[in-house]
């Protein structure tokens, strides 16, 4: 089983990233929130879960250990497969998801595409007693304290697109393509932010 990959990000698509590890390209399915944190040319460490089915072998990836741990808990719930678990992690962070389960908040869980209210209630029923909120909150606090956030400037562009009515996932993808297609370096210089915004808007308008 492949539990972790460390390599160069070759490309990022709407729901996958291609990671080059020693000349071998691994296609990894990831949540939109994680895909928004990486870009082509970046070195990345991705924690992975290999799903083997009748039709395919699929790698699911996570930038944080907590996200992978949450994913593994979710797929243990009857009727919840890797695709739905990944959808949940694209909709809620592991901490938000844990609190939603603890608070019996099926409405918050059901916002994930492909889940539905019955699936949300099943997750709450089967996982509520197995999640220790105190440990999750402590781990998040410790991780936040040591993590060095890197503002690449792309977040500002994505927020601008969202304010214009575009979906976050579409905005993130357009910004990545705009940067790659026009050979713009990150972190973005101040003068590059409006340029990337114009390029991304042009891409999204063409995709309508």
From TrEMBL:
**Family matches, as InterPro entries:** DNA_helicase_Holl-junc_RuvA_I, Hlx-hairpin-Hlx_DNA-bd_motif, NA-bd_OB-fold, RuvA, RuvA_2-like, RuvA_C, RuvA_C_sf
Q: Which GO terms describe its molecular function?
A: ATP binding; four-way junction DNA binding; four-way junction helicase activity; hydrolase activity
Write out the ranges of the annotated region (Domain III).
152-208
**What GO biological process, any one, is recorded here?**
DNA recombination
Q: Which residues form a coiled coil?
A: none
Pfam families tied to this protein: HHH_5 (PF14520), RuvA_C (PF07499), RuvA_N (PF01330)
Location in or out of the cell:
Cytoplasm
Q: Name the GO cellular-component terms.
A: cytoplasm; Holliday junction helicase complex; Holliday junction resolvase complex
Which SUPFAM superfamilies does the UniProt entry name for this protein? DNA helicase RuvA subunit, C-terminal domain, Nucleic acid-binding proteins, RuvA domain 2-like
Q: Which residues form the Helix-hairpin-helix DNA-binding motif class domain?
A: 72-91, 107-126
Keywords in alphabetical order: ATP-binding, Cytoplasm, DNA damage, DNA recombination, DNA repair, DNA-binding, Helicase, Hydrolase, Nucleotide-binding
CDD domains from the xrefs? UBA_RuvA_C
Q: Which family does it belong to?
A: Belongs to the RuvA family.
Q: What is known of its domains?
A: Has three domains with a flexible linker between the domains II and III and assumes an 'L' shape. Domain III is highly mobile and contacts RuvB.
Its function, per the record, reads: The RuvA-RuvB-RuvC complex processes Holliday junction (HJ) DNA during genetic recombination and DNA repair, while the RuvA-RuvB complex plays an important role in the rescue of blocked DNA replication forks via replication fork reversal (RFR). RuvA specifically binds to HJ cruciform DNA, conferring on it an open structure. The RuvB hexamer acts as an ATP-dependent pump, pulling dsDNA into and through the RuvAB complex. HJ branch migration allows RuvC to scan DNA until it finds its consensus sequence, where it cleaves and resolves the cruciform DNA.
Question: How does the annotation summarize its subunit structure?
Answer: Homotetramer. Forms an RuvA(8)-RuvB(12)-Holliday junction (HJ) complex. HJ DNA is sandwiched between 2 RuvA tetramers; dsDNA enters through RuvA and exits via RuvB. An RuvB hexamer assembles on each DNA strand where it exits the tetramer. Each RuvB hexamer is contacted by two RuvA subunits (via domain III) on 2 adjacent RuvB subunits; this complex drives branch migration. In the full resolvosome a probable DNA-RuvA(4)-RuvB(12)-RuvC(2) complex forms which resolves the HJ.
Name the chain's protein. Answer: Holliday junction branch migration complex subunit RuvA
């Amino acid at each position: 089983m492949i539990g972790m990959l460390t390599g160069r990000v070759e490309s990022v698509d709407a729901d996958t990233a291609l990671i080059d590890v020693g000349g071998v390209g691994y296609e990894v399915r990831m949540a939109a929130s994680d895909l928004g944190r990486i870009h082509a040319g970046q070195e990345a460490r991705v924690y992975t879960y290999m799903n083997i089915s009748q039709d395919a072998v699929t790698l699911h990836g996570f930038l944080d250990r907590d996200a992978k741990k949450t994913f593994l808990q979710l797929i243990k719930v009857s009727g919840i497969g890797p695709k739905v678990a990944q959808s949940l992690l694209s909709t809620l962070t592991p901490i938000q998801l844990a609190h939603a389960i603890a608070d019996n908040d099926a409405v918050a869980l059901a916002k994930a595409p492909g889940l539905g209210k019955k699936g949300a209630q099943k997750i709450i029923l089967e996982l509520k007693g197995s999640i220790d909120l105190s440990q999750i909150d402590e781990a998040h606090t410790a991780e936040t304290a040591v993590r060095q956030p890197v503002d690449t400037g792309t977040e500002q562009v994505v927020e601008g697109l969202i304010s214009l009515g575009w979906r976050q996932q579409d905005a993130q993808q357009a910004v990545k393509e705009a940067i790659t297609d026009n050979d713009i370096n990150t972190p973005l210089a101040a003068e590059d932010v409006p340029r990337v915004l114009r390029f991304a808007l042009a891409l999204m308008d063409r995709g309508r």
